[in-house]
Specification:
The chain has 134 residues and is mostly helical. The longest helix is centred in the middle third of the chain and has 61 residues, at 46-106. The protein has helices spanning 46-106, 109-133, and strands at 18-21, 24-28, 35-39.
Amino acid sequence: MAASSSRDGFFYGGAVPYRSREGLTTRPVGSSDEIQLRIDPMHADFDDEISGLRGQVKLLRNVAQEIGSEAKFQKDFLDQLQMTVIKAQAGVKNNIRKLNRSIIKNGGNHVVHVVLFALFCFFLVYLWSKVARR
């Protein structure tokens, strides 16, 4: 691709560059992680640009530190939650084991009682339907 004139404000086939202030322009390169700066010496106020960049770097550093502290907090919270879940699972497992021992020790008569109660209820409903037809 042929490059246009930098006086037109276009670089590399018509792409409009990003401008921070007078004097600095960016243009894309092969990797998305890299930015190349082109300095126009006619309008360059390097001290202002450098102090502006320093301010942005400080802001980014503060944001990165906040993200790091939040990530640490979330990790600690998840670790505590995981320990709580493990303790709850152990408690449920122990209670199920005790319940199984109790059922074995006292016998499985409760199932028989439930079946007999269900048969008794069906018998009552049957009798009630016979009486209601008369």
